UniProtKB/TrEMBL annotation:
Organism, scientific name: Paenarthrobacter nitroguajacolicus (Arthrobacter nitroguajacolicus)
Keywords tagged on the record: ATP-binding, Nucleotide-binding, Transport
Pfam families recorded: ABC_tran (PF00005)
Stored PANTHER family: ABC TRANSPORTER RELATED, IMPORT ATP-BINDING PROTEIN
Keyword Transmembrane helix applies: no
Keyword Transmembrane part of the UniProt annotation: no
Source organism superkingdom: Bacteria
The protein's name: ABC transporter ATP-binding protein
Gene Ontology annotations for the cellular component aspect, listed alphabetically: membrane protein complex; plasma membrane
Length: 256
């Protein structure tokens, strides 16, 4: 797997601030049954940063990720992604915005079984009627170690290889942010390390902003900054922390 070289990806997004959330409130349901999943959360991320979101089960991590990525709409508050206020966009416009400007890596790889590796990677461009830049595709295939397998179907790949296809697919549009929800959750430790190394190289060498939700202190220890949530509210942060420090902080926040 070749290293992701600095300077190869064009710096298409000039502003340093790429994601900004202000006073995000998310209430599910209404009346006495309603659940306040997020209660006034805000943060700002700069381009090229690698951020992990952690917190006890039910603290609002997935809800926050979904609101930040435009997969869900906050009840109130503002989400600016790549300079666009996305919280007021219609479903149709938001869906096109996500396809063109946001990358996703989930625990499930979500690859289309009938398509080859390279067709899966190029899918967001094809769906958006954008042309594929062959040198960028080759570079990504090489970077994720799958150049020799570009014509294979996902079923002929290991779980780690499939997740690397999903990472290349997330990067093909040069998105403002790549969001990961437990991206290594389904992988054995060796494949998880490869995927994690790939995400952190992506942030450091391509200046690609990465945000992951994780329960795993080893995954979080790769991030520049860890944001902690508890009961739907911001509960502090750690920068450049070790797995042991992260574990201590998580334990202090309650059961996880
Ligand atoms: N669609 C929904 N309808 C109602 N309540 C929801 C919904 N989704 C999440 N919640 C509630 O919102 C709160 C936050 O959930 P969320 O999934 O964001 O937490 P989490 O920190 O990601 O949890 P976990 O670590 O267990 O995945 C929880 O109380 C959850 O039960």
């Amino acid at each position: 797997m070749t290293s992701l070289l600095p300077g190869i990806a064009q710096a298409t997004h000039q502003t340093a601030e790429v994601l900004s959330l202000e006073s995000i409130v998310k209430v599910y349901g209404s009346g006495p049954q309603s659940v306040t999943a997020l209660d006034g959360v805000g943060f700002t991320l700069e381009r090229g940063s690698f951020t992990a979101i952690m917190g006890p089960s039910g603290s609002g991590k997935s809800t926050l990720l979904h609101c930040a990525a435009g997969l869900d709409t906050p009840t109130s508050g503002s989400v600016r992604l790549g300079g666009t206020e996305i919280s007021g966009l219609s479903k149709k416009v938001l869906s096109a915005f996500r396809r063109d400007h946001v990358g996703f890596v989930f625990q499930a790889y979500n690859l289309l079984p009938a398509l080859s590796v390279e067709e899966n990677i190029c899918l967001p461009l094809l769906l958006g009627n954008k042309s594929v830049e062959p040198s960028w595709l080759d570079f990504l295939l090489d970077s994720v170690g799958l150049a020799e397998h570009r014509s294979r179907r996902p079923s002929a790949l290991s779980g780690g290889q499939q997740q690397r296809v999903a990472i290349a697919r997330a990067l093909i549009t040069r998105p403002y942010v790549v969001f990961g929800d437990e991206p290594t959750g389904a992988l054995d430790s060796r494949s998880a390390k490869q995927v994690l190394d790939l995400l952190s190289h992506t942030a450091r060498e391509l200046h690609q902003t990465v945000v992951v939700v994780t329960h795993d202190p080893v995954v979080a220890s790769q991030a520049d900054r860890i944001l902690f949530l508890a009961d739907g509210a911001f509960a502090g942060h750690l920068d450049g922390a070790t797995p042991a420090e992260i574990t201590r902080r998580m334990t202090s926040l309650g059961e996880w």
